[in-house]
Amino acid sequence: xxxxxxxxxxxxxxxxxxxxxxxxxxxxxxxxxxxxxxxxxxxxxxxxxxxxxxxxxxxxxxxxxxxxxxxxxxxxxxxxxxxxxxxxxxxxxxxxxxxxxxxxxxxxxxxxxxxxxxxxxxxxxxxxxxxxxxxxxxxxxxxxxxxxxxxxxxxxxxxxxxxxxxxxxxxxxxxxxxxxxxxxxxxxxxxxxxxxxxxxxxxxxxxxxxxxxxxxxxxxxxxxxxxxxxxxxxxxxxxxxxxxxxxxxxxxxxxxxxxxxxxxx
Length: 265
Description:
The structure is a single chain. The chain is an alpha/beta fold. The protein is built from 6 helices and 14 strands. The chain has helices spanning 47-57, 71-83, 95-103, 137-142, 179-189, 222-237, and strands at 4-15, 21-28, 35-41, 65-68, 87-90, 116-117, 126-133, 148-150, 167-174, 191-197, 202-208, 212-219, 242-247, 257-261. Helix 1 packs across helix 2. The longest helix is centred in the C-terminal third of the chain and has 16 residues, at 222-237. The relative contact order is 0.14. Residues 107-261 form the RNA-binding protein Tab2/Atab2 C-terminal domain.
């Protein structure tokens, strides 16, 4: 099993004796059995300092993977990890680290970028809202030959304490000939959550990567807007759990990709 660290390196509320800003390095494993803290003045906040701290924190064993959720931390941590041959995983799903930051009352919100339009060659032919019962959703798709299948254990309904009767909302995209191309793009973009945004027109916004946002669909239809509001309400009941399914058509014979998403921000 891989040894994983969740790591943040950012300006802290702390100051040194001269009133200078201190940068704080936080390292923990997913269980928080390991917790490592170090600070340095902003003038020393570089990859060399980080490399030394990683060696100290990993004196017994360095990790196989360092997970980073903050875009501003990624380049420095990546450079230090590269010095030590450690793989980097940019991901918003650093639950233990974010819990620690919340306990320290440190800000963890990432500035949201304006959403960008999806490239035209990725557009599907049509899409619709859908829902599946929590008790069926995992078995429904793990038993099918789906090229891209992402059902992380931490967002499975049973691990979120959801009753089997809760309806899990989602969006189905019929991609036609672009179906596999769209599924591969979603995999590379690292889909995180799919949210309804009311406006003129209304839209479905895909959050992906660490801070990317994409306009997956727009619509100006009262009936679709009503369905979108039901989708949002169901997400609240399902503790943010929702899904995205890409398939060539509505024959239910072939699937290109399925993502069970937890709305982790």
